[in-house]
Amino acid sequence: MTPIDPSRVINITEALDSEPGLYTKVMESTAVASVYAPNQDAEDKVYAALKDLSPHMKVYRKEDIPDRFFYKHGPFVSRITCIADLGWAILQPMAPHFPAKGSAILKGYHGYDNKLTDMRGIFYATGPYFKAGSSVDHIRAIDPYNLMCNILGLEAAPNNGSLAVFEPLIAPSAGERVSSSALHLFLVLLQVSVLKTLSVIDVELFRHKAFDQHQEMNDDDDDDDDDDDDDDDDDDTVVVVVVMMMMMVMMMMMMMMVVMMMMMMVMEILLTRSIEGRAPRKVTMLRQAVQKLLPVRQNLAQQINRNFGASAVVAQKANLDPIQQLFVDKIREYRTKSVGGKLVDATPETETALRDSLANLERAYGAKGVDMTQFPTLNFTEPELVWPGLTADQKVKMYEVVEAAELADMEKQAAAEEPPKYDPWEGM
């Protein structure tokens, strides 16, 4: 933001109103004014009238707007764009006086050339990912996206931002933090694997023991005891072999997980420790290559969880975004309220739309119960909000001024479009 002096204004009203029909609309934000001309001839006249109007305002045709603004290729960009110098305000026909639009005097404005220091924002970062007391010269608004993706271990989509500008801020232990989360995941999966293996072995041994006891109870022939003992020994051998094979398979899976996770942990630590501050482009490329492996690790963890009984329903609910989850939770709270909730002064269309939304949630997320058919009391007759600082009379007066200005603008535009009347007596 930059301070504004009411005396530093550029009024483009007289230039645009010097001839009827030069423009159809002017959109402005104090620092920038966009002038829409109805045709090429009008555009040329507007450009000629504005380009030398003030030394504190730059005037561009659409194709001449600097590329660094990333603006001129938009389909709705006006043919003429005016940009004021820092601290100057552009006044236009709809608001030819300062302050514009009857608002209170503002002490500062945004929207000037983004290369100016006054237009920069403030960037703060805290946490174990960053070095204490570190700083950088400046960053662009599109750069933090790459930083956030890097912190979360996500692969950034193609963009014009840069992660290299943040290298002086990133702590050497940032890679260890990411790696420690991988190690924690590995230990959890290892624990689950061991418990599952022990439970399988215990179940198999219990089933075999119960089967032996059942056979002994039904065995009435004492002469065949020796033969039964031989059969039991054979069964014991089969069970032991099956259990051993299962344990070998589990051990192989665990070894594969250990190798994959250890490789990724080592690569992450090397990237953040040994080559920090050198060849940032190569560091970024290597880090992105490691991040491409992360989905493999995540998919492996999901598969292991499914194999060990993780609920698909829980996984589905975990994938809800916070707004959806909040909406579902709020709807489920209705079942704790008194039955017979109603909509106060709601139209049938509103009630139908709400019920349809709840039905869609029920189909999408399996939310069922009384809460899906009962509504809380929603009042659609709340008093209209009053703008802060305005009384009711002031608000009415403001609307009258706005309507009068709009009516005058419509009459002016209609007069400009009306063809000249033919007077047969003219010149006689």
Write structural notes for this entry:
The protein has a 4-stranded antiparallel sheet, with helices on one face. By secondary structure, it is of the alpha/beta class. The longest helix has 49 residues, at 225-273. The chain is built from 10 helices and 10 strands. It has 4 domains: 2-113, Gyrase A, domain 2, CATH 3.30.1360.180; 174-310; 316-379, no CATH class; 383-417. The radius of gyration is 37 Å and the shape is elongated. Its main location: membrane. Belongs to the eukaryotic ATPase subunit F6 family. GO terms for molecular function: glycerophosphocholine cholinephosphodiesterase activity; metal ion binding; proton transmembrane transporter activity. InterPro entries: Alkaline_phosphatase_core_sf, ATP_synth_f6_mt, ATP_synth_f6_sf_mt, Phosphodiest/P_Trfase.
Please name the defining characteristics of this protein:
4 domains; alpha/beta; Gyrase A, domain 2; 428 residues; four-stranded antiparallel sheet; 10 strands; 10 helices; two-stranded antiparallel ribbon
Q: What class, by secondary structure content?
A: alpha/beta
Mean pLDDT across all amino acids: 67
Oligomer: single chain
Order of helices and strands: EEHEEHEEEEHHHHHHEHEH
**Cα-atom radius of gyration:** 37 Å
Largest sheet: 4 strands, antiparallel
Low-confidence stretches: 96-105, 274-283, 300-319, 332-344, 367-389
- Percent of residues in helices comes to 40-55%
The number of E-state strands comes to 10
The separation of the N and C termini measures 63 Å
| Percentage of residues in strands | 5-15%
How many structural domains does the protein architecture include? 4
Pfam family, one: ATP-synt_F6
Transmembrane segments: 238-271
Protein name: glycerophosphocholine cholinephosphodiesterase
Organism: Plakobranchus ocellatus
